[in-house]
Specification:
CATH superfamily of one domain: NAD(P)-binding Rossmann-like Domain
Radius of gyration: 20 Å
Shape: globular
Strand content: 15-25%
CATH topology of one domain: Rossmann fold
Distance between the termini: 51 Å
Order of helices and strands: EHEEHEHHHEHEEHEEHEEHEHHHH
Number of helices: 13
CATH class of one domain: Alpha Beta
Number of strands: 12
Length: about 350
Amino acid sequence: MILVTGGAGFIGANFILDWFAVNDEPLVNVDKLTYAGNLRSLAPLAKDTRHRFVRGDIADAALIGELLTRHRPRAVVNFAAETHVDRSIRGPAAFIETNVTGTFSLLDSVREWWSALPDAERAAFRFLHVSTDEVYGSLAATDPAFSESTPYAPNSPYAASKAASDHLVRAYHHTYGLPTLTTNCSNNYGPLQFPEKLIPLMIVNALAGKPLPVYGDGRNVRDWLYVRDHCSAIRTVLAHGAPGATYNVGGNAEMANLDVVRTLCRLVGERRPGLDCERQITFVSDRPGHDRRYAIDASKIRRELGWSPSETFESGMRSTVDWYLANDAWLASVQNAEYRQWVDLHYAERAEA
């Protein structure tokens, strides 16, 4: 069995659902259930004995130690993180607490348990840490894409906290020999994403007739990765990655934010005839320190492990829009009072540009 942390969040929940779609190996899922964690995302597994959910914090060393001792996982896959850049600008402390202190505590609990295992189990064990391309900083339009050897230069509190966690994972491999793996992915999108992020927020606002707020000139560029492709990459790295290695995971889909929103409007309009949500696009004042461009060179994982994305940006976006339009109950369940208050406060402060 494996131990998954943060498995009620966006990427973690997709990973668990896909995990059981391709194999029967059981897992224990530990999640703190902060605002972005949602057990409704895992409703298809409510009666599935292969999935055991435990509400808990990765910084709770006693809990993690007890779970490791009881279940003896062959791997830990760490998704647990605070991830929203705008929230990190408003309140960085939570990002340090979870992404830095929490990752440290998790690593140390795993190291202590792992070091006492029999030799064969120690050799077979893996600790896979899921991270982001934002640790590399920002690129100019003509710069080469981020590779695994690109120096770290994080520019937001979120990115800095993830960079710190990556460094801790690296240190635990080199100092203690813990067999770690790190993946640095580009911007994920797809089903079950909390609607504070760009694509689900735009879908929610488009359907409600609200403005579609686009930062600055809308020309900030990201590489877009469909979440199920990301999940398949993680499974590939877990199965075949070299201990101590880092693998960049990208979708081969560099797009400016404005073009992403226009694509979304076109797809929503195809499914809701008469809804011309492109008229709702509103340019607002830019995010502080907004990185201009991210791009991923994923040639290493393709060359060494044979992985490449299955979805194009168009096919992934079609699937994403279709999922949100078919899942109003899930969307309603996550748009609670705290969510609405945060969105209203955040965008009320950004005058139209």
